[in-house]
Amino acid sequence: MIEKFAxxxxxxxxxxxxxxAGVSTESGVKDYRSADGLYNTVKEYGVPPEEILSHNxxxxxxxxxxxxxxxxxxxKAEPNNAHKALAQLENSGKLKAVITQNIDGxxxxxxxxxxxxxxxxxxxxxxxxxxxxxxxKNVLSEIKSKNVPKCECGGIMKPKVVLYSESLYDGVAESAxxxxxxxxxxxxxxxxxxxxxxxxxxxxxxxxxxVMINKSETEYDGNADLIIRENIGxxxxxVMEKI
Length: 243
Known about the structure:
With 243 residues, this protein is an alpha/beta fold. 33% of the residues lie in helices and 16% in strands. The chain folds into two domains: 1-28 and 80-119 and 168-243, TPP-binding domain (Rossmann fold), CATH 3.40.50.1220; 30-74 and 122-161, 2-Layer Sandwich (SIR2/SIRT2 'Small Domain'). Helix 7 (106-110) links the parallel strand 2 and strand 3.
């Protein structure tokens, strides 16, 4: 399968990668829906993590939200083989975009430049009252000190992430769809394709090959030209040795 994957990459020159939480698990970042993921293991708050990560909960229970955020989103993690390989493929000119549902910034740290962050980024904050962008270092320092970060105007600083019941940021969906529609190869990795509207973007692909790299089945597997059920970092390490 690795040989076939490598041949597909060699053949194509307009590749797009669409990834989810499973891309970062080998970096020590928890995913959401697996047996060991946040949604199945975090019980200490008395409400499910899906509720904590919602628009209403943020404004009604900001202190609890940031306690959760501090424990599970402010962690030390380094890019793994998947992040590094995608950066190399972009540098070679073959990969045109990384579309990610992750908010950890690991793709950029690995060297990827054209990264479309569907659900925003945990690296930026803005005031929910006046809209002013916050100083990331200062805001993170407040969160680590178990304080609710505030703006100079007195408003609450909010992470630039798309919470449940919020819409995607302007232009993000259009950019992702355009890249997928123009790709000759779509690599889908580390995602159950269960989060909408992001998962629906895969339907816009009209190119040669869809490759699925995921440990569990997805509803789009029937459309795939190649399915690999291995750790995504290991898959990319092996395939880059063949290219």
